[in-house]
Amino acid sequence: MKTTAIIGIGNEFRRDDGVGRFAARQLAKRAGDGIVVHESNGEALSLMELWSEAATVILIDAAEATSDAGTVHRLDASEDALPSDFLHASTHTFSVAEAIEMARSLDRLPETVIVYGIQVADTGHGTGLTAEAEHGAQEAVERILQELP
Amino acid sequence: MSDPPEKYSAPDGDAFNGTRTIRVDYLARVEGEGALHLEIKDGRVDDLKLKIFEPPRFFEAFLQGRSFREAPDITARICGICPVAYQMSACNAMEDAAGVAVDGPLRELRRLLYCGEWIESHALHVFLLHAPDFLGYESGIEMAGDHRGIVEMGLQLKKAGNAIGTFLGGREIHPVNVKVGGFYKTPRKRDFAELAETLRRAVDAAEKTVQWAAQLPFPDFEQDYEFVSLSHPEEYPMNAGRIVSNRGLDIDVPAYEENFEETHVPYTNALHSLRKGGAAYFVGPMARYSLNFDRLTPRSQAAARNAGLGEVCRNPFKSIIVRSVEILYACEEALRVIGAYEEPDAPAVEVEAGGATGYGCTEAPRGLLYHRYTMGADGLIDSAKIVPPTSQNQKQIENDLWNLVPQYMDLADDKLQWRCEQAIRNYDPCISCSTHFLKIHKRESSD
């Protein structure tokens, strides 16, 4: 049966870069049946595996935009590509935006792809979110719970 | 060779006279941050610099004062593509310092883990980073639209490599199961069934990959390299062997620094590694292949021959075929290890590496990776030296460009740039790995 998958992406050893994983852990406790929650480092192939059985995927990641820290952005990538510089990209592998586009080229993208990007304040070395990022994560969690089936 | 996409236009006729400057401010489809500066004056290459501006990462300094047991996990963080290579070279060095040999099933499991890293790293480069150069696409994503079957095959192979990493290393990136002396936990023989099935399918895909890579268009660009790699009498080199070259070098690992030296070059944050005396040399799949062809499996040798490769390959553009052959070999080798596996008595052997210096050298996907550590009597690291493959290839990449550009002088700037970037990607450079820095010795003096 096709499900809804939630994937929190990031590196929790780079402070706010772990905001997606933080939000995913909150959602794992509160989301109902039929919702599968994962955490991921954002590696493209793994993402494609994680959403392979899903009709809807909700990705939560750290975002870099010109907004205040903690701001929550919601984008619908079901039809259109994300701005290439929106999510926190790595030089070591494909970014999340590139993973989505690769999957789109290969017809391996769920019907509905929603991306929540949370504006980061600090992605330096270390663990623990800034207060702004944690606040953004809480807001994203509430909004995601509202839109789940 | 395929032409770049048509949107690359020809320059004005006058552009071929006087001074032309090709600047690539940010090299795409390589790991890390680098740039190319090329200056052509009156039809001749006047200046050429491969600039690595990714900041130095000071890992050798981080290691000072840490336990010898921590080196595999700390150094693994140098690279997300080849963490196993760092773990293996660090373990080898510590075990060398302790005078301990890790043998039998533990040695074999290390080889299996290394196979996973070669498969994963090579598949990423062959299909998604290098193939677009030959087929005229800006990216693997763009290429996937027109060559879906090829990209799917690449993803299948990468997944097989990832599967080994997850199975044996605990996770696909930065494995957590490796320790000095062996592993934290070793698998039961019965646990391998699913992985073996994945690898059997991967062997077939890898063989097709060699055939596919062979029909790509290649420029005529044979070069006279000094190839340097490990060599072992009984196996294609990964974790063990002497350091050899096609020009007579044949040394034990501890003699590395007597034969190679690193120099700081002002325009790049990565040290240039050279043979003592100043000559560039070549490490990586093409060096391994050319120095160890007879230790490939019969099936891999046959695939290489059918692809038109001789026992030595000197055209760096054909490194995409060589990498494909190594994917095939690594899949076959992984299956051999799995088939012959006997569960070890213990997941690791005891190692105490205090008060000694140890040397380790293994074959990362991109080539020779040298580590040297000196420990105090308390087992804490006093000094560390790490020489990654990309800093060893850096000078050779520049030499290739000096020799390549004159062949393509009549190309428009954008097409010439394309060709240069492709030549850099022949080496699959990992710039993040390469940025370590000369130690600065501060000497204060007074009148």
Structure notes:
The complex is a heterodimer of chains A (149) and B (447). Chain A is an alpha/beta fold. Chain A is 31% helix and 24% strand. Chain A has a 5-stranded mixed beta sheet with strand order 2-1-3-5-4. In chain A, helix 1 (19-30) crosses helix 4. Chain A starts with a strand and ends with a helix. The model of chain A has no long low-confidence stretch (mean pLDDT 88). Chain B has a 3-stranded antiparallel beta sheet. A 3-stranded antiparallel beta sheet of chain B has the order 6-7-8, covered by helices on one side. Chain B has 14 helices and 13 strands. The chains are: A alpha/beta (149), B alpha+beta (447). Chain A binds chain B through residues 41, 43, 45-46, 48-49, 90-94, 98, 101-102, 105-106, and chain B through 31-33, 79-81, 124, 128, 139-141, 144-145, 148, 151-152, 155, 158-159, 162, 172-173, 431-432.
Can you summarize this structure?
By secondary structure, chain A is α/β, with parallel strands linked by helices. Chain A has helices at residues 19-30, 44-50, 96-105, 131-147, and strands spanning 3-9, 35-40, 54-63, 72-76, 112-119. Chain A has a 5-stranded mixed sheet.
Low-confidence stretches of chain A: none
Model regions low in confidence, pLDDT < 50 over at least 5 residues of chain B: 1-16, 436-447
Whole-angstrom Rg of chain B: 22 Å
Residue share in helix of chain A: 25-40%
Strand portion of chain B, in percent? 15-25%
Oligomer: heterodimer
Note the run of SSEs of chain B as H and E.
Answer: EEEHHHHHHEEHEEEHEEHHHEEEHHH
- Tally of separate helices of chain B: 14
Q: What sort of overall outline of chain B do the alpha carbons produce when their principal axes are compared? A: globular
Order of strands in the sheet with most strands of chain B: 1-2-3
- Largest sheet, strands/sense/barrel of chain B: 3 strands, antiparallel
Primary descriptors:
heterodimer; A: 149 residues; alpha/beta; 5-stranded mixed β-sheet; 24% strand; B: 447 residues; 3-stranded antiparallel β-sheet; disordered N terminus
